[in-house]
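Quick start: what a row looks like.
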Amino acid sequence: MRIKKSKSYEIVKRIFDLLFSLILLVFFLPIIVVVAIFIKLDSSGPILADTPERVGRNGKLFKMYKFRSMIQNAHEILRQNPKFLKLFDEYKKGSYKLRDDPRITRVGKFIRKHSLDEVPQLINVLRGEMSLVGPRAYYPDELREQQKKYPETRKAVKIVLSVMPGITGHWQVSGRSEINFDKRIEMDADYVKKRSVFYDLMIILKTPWAMIYGKGAL
């Protein structure tokens, strides 16, 4: 279900994405180096998170780049280890978020609170898989399970999947993980309907404050 926007908006948005992603990568380079070193010193495992693919535009799957903020193989452990069965149920009931997640490392807790784990997604933007501003990039099983729980969100999901997901977005600067899936997907769909260059700029201007204060981050 595509919400049509002008061709000029799409062109300006892509140019904006490319230009600012390059600028931000240069700006964040010292932070990237420091975060990478602390991740390696804090726990064993790769610097980047080894997580399943996400659902992108038109349902196409892609690999999202993020700094590893959890123990190694955290995704598989939650879903396959019998010791985490109760935690996995809590994870699904909580709109695929956990308030007290034992898999998060010490460094991971800090970089997640301030969204520093998201910085490598600038590479996804340069690759044309994501935009600076857009809806959340969901896991395939997350979309399936949450639509079963909230069947009224199916139309909103179709709208959301008609555009590229973003590093930041409307719900991320408006409460983030404190918002359940049904409200979150409606906010994402609302963004898709209203998106414009001005709206994108407003969200980007709000993003640093969300990163600094870490409101609702899990």
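That is the whole record. The first strand starts at residue 54 and ends at 55. The chain has one domain: 7-213.
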